[in-house]
Structure prediction request, 291 residues.
Amino acid sequence: MSNPTLTSTFPLAGRPVSRVGYGAMQLAGPGVFGPPQDRAGAIAVLREAMALGVNHIDTSDFYGPHITNQLIREALHPYAEELVIVTKVGALRGADGSWLAALEPDQIRRGVEDNLRNLGLEALDIVNLRNMGQIHAPAEGSIAPQVEALAELQRRGLVRHIGLSNVTLTQFNQARGIAEIVCVQNQYNLVQREDDALLDELTRLGIAYVPFFPLGGFTPIQSSVLARVAACIGAKPMQVALAWLLQRAPNILLIPGTASLAHLRENMQAAQWPLTDEALAELDAIGRHPA
Prediction:
């Protein structure tokens, strides 16, 4: 495992980004649908993230929909040169807030155009193809038409780099035969380790791995072991969960999301908690025997 520091970076599309970034999903309303209850508070969180050194923001125009990107534009445009904004396409929101697949080539094109418009950009830094799969877990199947659609948009200059989300190792390898893939964003945390083999392969290749739901998602990780380790070093359990990810592999980039200034500041301190070999062994065991 690596030994991260407050200034640790990893190259994302050739640009060094801080290993602790920010995920904007929670800035939208309940269920990632509609506007936030506190718009000014959401703007404040985004600006504070930048003040704390974040230069990697994860978003999508189907968060809200449109709301999160509009908040980012209001808070941060014109964007700092060092800021890398990663967005994604592949889904739509129903009128009832449901998540719908939008993986036809013309839907991918419209998704890119929506992101460009609401972020106020002429080209997107990185676009992740979000394979719907089983919503929070991948399902096998060809993603070639979708990757080819993004590659065409890249040739047109609307997309600078391509990433993947919610994919298998087989799908990653298929996509690499079509275009350069600069990052993979899949569900991974202390409890959910199904992606170990894919993570290890990306580490070998020097490609960024971005775990979504790094703290367990809508139901935060509950573990007596995690609580005990955190208490022993004077940290919050969720800070230790993030610290474990930072030490799991050097190419892991974190995007913990929050609409709270206090939680944002706590998340940004994750690299302050280097874990001993003994603590790491205890935490590793959670994935095998959650408790």
The mean pLDDT is 93.
